[in-house]
Amino acid sequence: MLSNKMEEQLNKQVNAEMYSAYLYLAMSAYFEDRNLSGFANWMYVQAQEEMTHAMKIYRYINDRGGRVNLEAIDAPPKEWDNEIQVAKQVYEHEQKVTKMIHDLVDLARNEKDHGTDNMLQWFVSEQVEEEANADELLQQLKFIEGKGQGLLMLDRELAKRQFVDETQEE
Ligand code: FEO
Prior knowledge:
The protein is mainly alpha-helical. It has 5 helices and no strands.
């Protein structure tokens, strides 16, 4: 059985992961509008991944006999100045999510809730990957100064990213 506090915080994380999906979908739409279909694909896949993160916690709350409470999802931004600004926001957002995951681990350990701690370790590893991917994108964009031939080549590269539901590979 989950404590009330743990249940509440896990529900907040479901909402945060759904917001992440919404944020990346908004970024995908922004890139579609700029005819950068590779960047749009990368963000679309990222949004799909975030939905699987939300659903992993959703399933976990139910498995532990908790109650899922779905709250309103905040509206994401609509516009950005350029590609570099988007990538910077992705990186900063992932750092924020990492902090949220670490706070959840701290809570689970304080409560001696080993089941939740164990479930969250998947997210701890995932966040290392998420930050690395976001940082790589940002650094590549900075390297090409976010423009010209380099931008089109990177767009072609990002078009190759495919969605894999890693939450099912356990
Ligand atoms: Fe669900 Fe991007 O972390």
